[in-house]
Specification:
Elements (H helix, E strand, L loop, with lengths): L6 E4 L4 E4 L3 E6 L2 H7 L2 E6 L3 E7 L6 E7 L9 H8 L5 E4 L3 H18 L15 H13 L5 H12 L1
Antiparallel strand pairs: 1-2, 2-3, 3-4, 5-6, 6-7
Helix pairs in contact: 4-5
């Protein structure tokens, strides 16, 4: 699922892009560079197991991506925003929460699509009709593959 143009949100400590396949966190600007240096992290949607969004209000808001096999650490609510300002899988924001909400919703949808059950397998071919099965048994018996007893038992099973 490609999103064109990609979704974009600008946060306090980085910028976030989502194109339907990759979540890209770019670190540009003074605050981002002072914490992470100028960098870019691309995360394939198949590696994202969850996304958490906390809207801004009295404290900073954030969006955080949980990576399969990654180590999460819990923190008290008041500290989560400041803790996430140093988390390489999170972007902290003061305003513009709508753009982050749109990205969260799109990532949630993409995660759900990744985990959908594979399409049902095609139904098995119908067994050959009784005449064909009897002919095959006869050929196996004539070729010596089946003994007289095996042939008789198999024929009895087919005929009911």
């Amino acid at each position: 699922m490609r999103i064109d143009p990609p979704l974009y949100a600008k946060g306090h400590n980085g910028q976030l892009h989502f194109d339907g396949e990759f979540v890209t966190i770019t670190r540009e600007g003074f605050v981002a560079r002072s914490t992470f240096g100028k960098s870019e992290k691309r995360i394939h949607i198949g590696q994202v197991s969850a996304v958490q969004l906390k809207g801004s209000g009295f404290t900073l808001g954030y969006i955080e991506f949980t990576i399969a096999g990654g180590l999460e650490r819990g923190s008290r609510a008041a500290r989560q925003s400041t803790d996430n300002s140093k988390n390489e899988n999170a972007v902290v924001f003061m305003k513009g929460g709508e753009a982050f909400t749109a990205i969260r919703d799109a990532v949630d949808k993409a995660i759900a699509e990744q985990h959908q059950a594979p399409a049902q397998a095609a139904p098995a071919a119908a067994p050959a009709d009784m005449a064909t099965q009897l002919r095959q048994l006869g050929e196996l018996h004539a070729a010596g593959v089946l003994t007289d007893a095996e042939f008789t038992a198999a024929k009895s099973r087919l005929l009911g």
